[in-house]
TrEMBL record:
Pfam families in UniProt: HTH_1, LysR_substrate
Organism taxonomic ancestry: Bacteria, Bacillati, Actinomycetota, Actinomycetes, Pseudonocardiales
Protein name: LysR family transcriptional regulator
Entry similarity comment: Belongs to the LysR transcriptional regulatory family.
UniProt cross-references to InterPro entries, sorted A to Z: LysR-type_TF, LysR_HTH_N, LysR_subst-bd, WH-like_DNA-bd_sf, WH_DNA-bd_sf, YidZ_PBP2
Keywords: DNA-binding, Transcription, Transcription regulation
CDD domains: PBP2_Nitroaromatics_like (cd08417)
tRNA processing found in the keyword field: no
Gene3D superfamilies: Periplasmic binding protein-like II (3.40.190.10), Winged helix-like DNA-binding domain superfamily/Winged helix DNA-binding domain (1.10.10.10)
HTH lysR-type domain mapped to chain residues: 11-68
Amino acid sequence: MKSATSRLTRLDLNLIVVLRELLRERNVTRAAKRVGVSQPAASAALSRLRRHFDDDLLVRRGGRYELSALAFQLVDQVEAVCEGVERLIATGSRFDPATTRREFEIVMSDFVVTVLGERLTGLLNADAPGARLNVVMVREALAANIGHTIQVADCVVSQPTTRFLVPEMCSALLFEDRWVCVVARDNPRFGGEVADLDELTGATWVVPYHDDATFPSVVPVSRQFARLGVRPRVAVRVDSYHAVPYLVASTDHVALMQQRLAAACARYLPLRILESPRPLEPLEIRLWWHVRHDADPGHRWFRGLVGRAARDCAARSAVTNGSGSSRAPAAPPPR
């Protein structure tokens, strides 16, 4: 039986990098561009990988490629291996953002992208023009899978939940927000600046990540309905925060939204923002990472960059709103 060391010496480990991009892109040409090789070289690498795994990996369906069953199993393993090798190489070395070609992966919702996305990518482009950013949009099952996600991704941006409170996870406050009610500008059911609780009870709702089977569910907006004492009559369910205002603007529906997202969308959609008739949970958005990243200088730099983006956005929001109600820490603490 061949030892693990023997098998490693017989495999060109550069193929692992190509495999990661092939599984991500499901396209040989795009994978070649991401790795920085020619398309024929990427095709040759795919052929070698197919021989090694005795599997097609990428299966043509019509005009595009899909992952084989084995390839689906390899996705998370390859990401973890590449991330581990990158950490190994970076450990103890000097990190230079101006010359790095490292890829950073961050998991966040479309709400957080609206708040931080422009500033984060602007800072990254200015300070580390050769670096790449892989933004993974958060899914409903994030909390349930956080133990795995936090080991694969560099960072997660999310509200805290009980599943996040484990010793291996570190966090830093990025910014705070609050929940507001949103209706169409010409909705005659709601008057004044504070939503009427009876009107909310009788209204139809647009609800992100709604779960018909469980109420309240673990989704943050569901807990706010419980605080209001409202069991929503759901007219539209959508797996997105940013889509909510578009589905409210020309209807008589109502929605609960994050104030920053609502304010951004109200600049170009016919919306009115109303205060809640009862106190709702404050929104505390934190940056989360695995403790093993603490010794990685590149990772520390990236965390600092996310913190800078949050502080810049908080300052901009305070100026826009004419107050200093949005808070962000001076710098992300180590734990």
